[in-house]
Amino acid sequence: MNSKRKFWKLVVKIVLFAFLAFIITQLFPRKNKFKYYYETGHPWTYDLVTATFDFPIYKSEKQIETEKEELLSQLAPYFLLNTAKAAEQLNLLFRNQLNLSDAGAHLQIQELFYKIYSTGIISVESYENLQKRNISKLTAILPDRTTKSLNVKDLYTPKSAYELIKRSMAENINLYNINEYLVENLKYDSATTELSHEEALKNLSLTTGIVQTGELIIGRGEIVTPATYQILESLKKEYENRLGAFKQSTVTYAGELMAVAGLLTLLAIYLKLFRPRVFGDIRNLLMLALNILFLVLVTSLIIRYTNINYYIVPFALLPIVIRVFFDSRTALFTHIISMMIISFIVDDAFQFLLLQIAAGMTAVSSLKDMTQRSQLVQSAMLIFLTYLVGFLASEFIFEGELSRVHWMMIVYFSISTGFLLFAYLLVYVLEKMFGLISSVTLVELTNVNSDLMMRFAEVAPGTFQHSLQVSNLATEAAKKINANSLLVRTGALYHDIGKMNHPEYFIENQGGGKNPLTALNPIEAAKIIISHVTDGIDLANKNHLPQQIIHFITTHHGLSQAKYFYNSYINQHPDETVDRQLFTYPGPLPDSRETAILMMADAVEARSRSLNQYTEESIDKMVEQMIDSQIADGQLRNSNISFKDVEEVKVVFKHKIRNMYHTRIAYPEVKKQAEAKKESESTDHH
Fold first, then answer.
1. Which spans in 275-372 are helix H?
2. Which of 17, 246, 599, 614 is most open to solvent, judged by the fewest CB atoms within 10 Å of its CB?
3. Structural domains present in the chain
């Protein structure tokens, strides 16, 4: 069953990494990547480039837009000319307004109407729009679908037509309200105009020349001029067009998938070989996968859908977050793998990797334990300086002149490092999502002024002092062997909180009084002593302590026995077969260096209180005996702690305990004061 469980756990992890590789590959921009990165005014840093095939030189988008605007400005817009409008309006005018006996006036009005309407009356809005666009001619479409060109300056508006008639006729013409019959007969034809524009744009050339096979494009060290830049852009476009859909969807995709899967496999192998505890917990792998996926997703979205520089992405956030939960080596290794994956979708992969790996090194070096906000600010400043120095160094090397440096990049680096200040929030979210524990939380838990610790000190003062001493011993030992000292310190503070339920049964809380356990039989007494482990687990759960801290409570006695009561029972019942489980702690055994250190520190500190004399020899002998007996009993066999580590831990314990119980010298009294004291006592006696 255990073998099958391990097999399926391994299968789940393989599926997780395979799925991560698949998703990341899907996020890659679906385009054929051009292998050169270049900018106008910058030197060409690659080898000599010649054309391997004929390709046209495409005009730039700006150039095409300019030519389009120029071409369209030369095209006359189309208007519909209603030539029958003059007769219609004259009939209305004569029928409703005029009753002229003067045939000459009647004829004059008729001639003016035909003259104005044949030229065309246009709305004021359309007229002003034509003038604003500097259009001097328009094309009029007659009812028979023939066309003629009209000068805009010759057109009439209703107002100018009325003024013409007014000037041409006698003064009494005002009586006839002719302005009501002067309406537009030229109306804008948007459909025909748009169609003419489309036809004209079809003939607009998108190229300015051709580059023939074998023709030199640019050599190494040459400055990329605007003309050369356009040729390179044309080569890039033609290169992308020439790669067929089959190659894009199969060969290119297969290559991307192989690269991503290979890099993630290296990460998995590293975790399996060097960080088995991280690899063993699926929650840890999910957290790592989510962080990697998040950076790839954000970078891909910026490249795909925006013109924002991808250097604003806080790539250094990854090693900071992973360092808070795990260790520097894992943080840096994961960061490098992630940056290598992202380098496939950025432009200048070499500079990108140079800057991001340097930033990752700075992050893990400057942020050993994120216990204060000020540390995060300091780390962000150092990362910004790393970006700045690395970028300027590479620019100075490849550009050679200050005028060619892309100074805007400094702004992007500032934004990126500014985002790092949100690491505190991200750490909190990840803790809640995956049940992890960070150094920030550990620091909060070590606060002895918390409600639980204050109650601990009040209810079981002796056990509380014992926990403090064990915490000091374990912390120094963890530092010596490069274990997680903050985790050990926190676990040690809480390992005995179960004694709060019945503090009177534990000798450190009895103050020299009678031990109530002596009135019980050994089995009952052992049950009470052993129960402080399960009581501690219940109390820890009620106070919402992290599982990692509860694990210290469950493992600090391992599967050892309450030997005092076990031996007492054997002595009282020499002929009886003893059930060892009645005197055995529930376990499990310590399964890490940190839990092993706590077990050793707990036993050594407790035993040190029962020494008859505190000499260097007695302390050294006690430490050796206690730890060797634990090893012989198999209590440390699952802890992954080496013999070398154990020996170094012993040295720390011996030194610390000698300092705790050092001999104090007696202060001598001044002889005159002593004699005066005796004399005073004699006088008082008499």
1. 276-280, 282-305, 317-325, 328-342, 349-366
2. 246
3. 2-32+246-434 (no CATH), 68-202 (no CATH), 464-660 (1.10.3210)
